[in-house]
Amino acid sequence: MRLRRFLAVVVARNREFYRDRTSLGWNLLFPLFTVLIFAFIFGGGPADQYKVGVLAPGGDLAAARHPFLQTPYVRFLVVTDEAAGVGKVGRHQLDLLLDLRGTPRYWINEESANGRLAEQLLRGAVSADAPMPPREAVQGRVVRYVDWVLPGVIATNMMFSCLWGVGYVIVRYRKNGVLRRLQATPLGPFEFLAAQVASRLLVVAIVTTLVYVLTDLLMGFAMHGSHLVLALVFFAGAACLVSIGLLVSVRTRSEELADGLLNLLSWPMMIFSGAWFSLEGAHPLAQATAQLFPMTHLVAAARRVMLDGAGLADVAPELALLAGTTVILLAVAAKLFRWS
Amino acid sequence: MDALLEARGLVKDYPGVRAVDGVSLAVPRGACFGLLGPNGAGKTTTLEMLEGITPPTAGEIRYKGRPLDRRYREEIGIQFQATALQEFQTTRESLDLFAQLYERNADLAHLIERCQLGTYLDRDTRKLSGGQRQRLLLAIALVNDPELVFLDEPTTGLDPQSRRNFWQLIDSVRRQGKTVLLTTHYMEEASQLCDTVAIVDGGRLIAQGAPAALVAEQFPGTLVRLPRAALPSGTALPDGAQARGETIELCTADAERTMHELLASGVPLGELQVSAPTLEDVFLALTGHGLRG
Description:
The complex is a heterodimer of chains A (about 350) and B (about 290). A 5-stranded mixed sheet of chain A has the order 2-1-3-4-5. Chain A has helices at about 5-20, 20-40, 80-90, 115-125, 145-175, 180-185, 190-220, 225-250, 255-270, 285-290, 295-310, 310-335; strands spanning about 50-55, 75-80, 95-100, 105-110, 135-140. In chain A, helix 5 packs antiparallel against helix 9. Chain A folds into 2 domains: about 5-40 and about 145-335, no CATH class; about 50-140, D-Maltodextrin-Binding Protein, domain 2 (3-Layer(aba) Sandwich). In chain A, helix 4 (about 115-125) links the parallel strand 4 and strand 5. Helix content of chain A is about 65%, strand content about 5%. Chain A contains 12 helices and 5 strands. The longest helix of chain A has about 30 residues, at about 145-175. The two termini of chain A are about 20 Å apart. Chain B is α/β, with parallel strands linked by helices. Chain B has 2 domains: about 5-210, Rossmann fold (3-Layer(aba) Sandwich); about 220-275. Chain B contains 10 helices and 14 strands. In chain B, strand 7 (about 150), helix 6 (about 160-175) and strand 8 (about 180-185) form a beta-alpha-beta unit. Chain B starts with a strand and ends in a 6-residue tail after the last helix. The interface between A and B is medium-sized, with 25 and 25 residues.
């Protein structure tokens, strides 16, 4: 690979991106507007129902027996990991956590109004002669919706930018003859593809940083982890998403087909990845499907870094998964690529 | 003159169709070689194989006596008939981009001057006129100072002034000692620019030679044309005459005598056309007058 050729294509592609004002504006403003709109709609208002986590025997809610479980307007969610459940109570993501695996006990966050009210509902459900389960108080930082949704918004913006910015653009180049013109030069397929990937990763890095900083300035959000680890997570995610875009583009000749394929990939990823809403309590099949998408692991890792302060070792499984997927997809894309 | 580029028995098959069927040709070093043919004749496919863009199904292509290899791309320049450049780039940036893709570069300042691009260097390439754009595409094809230049219908869509201007450019490229291989639908262009032309039809090479030699071979004399309606009824067609639609055409070695005979048979003088045969006449005679593609 000749660095001179690689850099020439990177520079030309970047120029094409930043001079296209509509594309640049969309990439910057879309995530910002999204965060603002969601913050406005869900901004800290009370939830319309209480969320109670249940540590059920064998992880099966149906096997649990307690009068509180019959309470209307309360959404009961199975929690399998006690520590994770307690953490969610601390962050106000669960109003109360009830352990029914042995002698009943429960956790609430004393700073949570919803937690206090959920506790009153529990008290009301327990009959007068039965003892109230022992209570354990949890402390933690409240997680606003904007804090929770921001990693998902950034990841969604990255997904659109990576898929369309590489996949759609290469198909457009193939259709209008740009690829044919480049094929007639000494530029090799690998040099061309590597330049497209590098150019888009650079664009994503700059746009994501701008969106991150602007969102923080405008409304502020929780960031309890390392920025370096977060950058690594986003980089691994972007590389994986770019490689998916590349794979879509390697043989496709029609922009309409490319658009359809990219939509076919992006919509399930957006819905099932947990970017916009939690899949807790969703059908097990939906949760299993979610694990197939790189976006799910990207969002989960970014959220853990930002909300839980997870370190490099904590997100290593997600990073390894994203990196491995990227290597495989890039190798397949390079093998299948056709100029015309 | 030794051949810079040589093709032997080129065949290209696509599913259900043989686009090129055993084409052999040799492009002499320093020559301007024209590849002519009606639409769908296989000339673009032949050209793409010679450019190294499309692999032949069978046959052999040699450049400087050796098979095409990676170095070939460094030594040739191509101006495609239909191509797009990356958007949002100026003329200068497009030239720079392509210059950086090659090991060897022409003197860009000289190239810009020769292709008359100086006034448009900072203009977005999407805002160039047809002639300006073709000149930029030619400059891009020459950016690596190639020995062999492929020009695929370089003047299609240009107005007569731009076309003649482009001919001068091609001529200046030739004077630099470069070898040019061009395709065109304009027979006047081929006659003006090419030392040798090859006519392709139905995937086969049906004629090859210098334009003047092909004309002399096909039409050894002067062409006389008259409308069929101008021939008095009952008069037989003159010897050697051919009917082409509503026109009667005959090639004669003695134009004066033929004119006398036609006038004597009652054909009005004003209806007669006398002209020297051209490459276009050769082309039509060899490839037929039926509508293609």
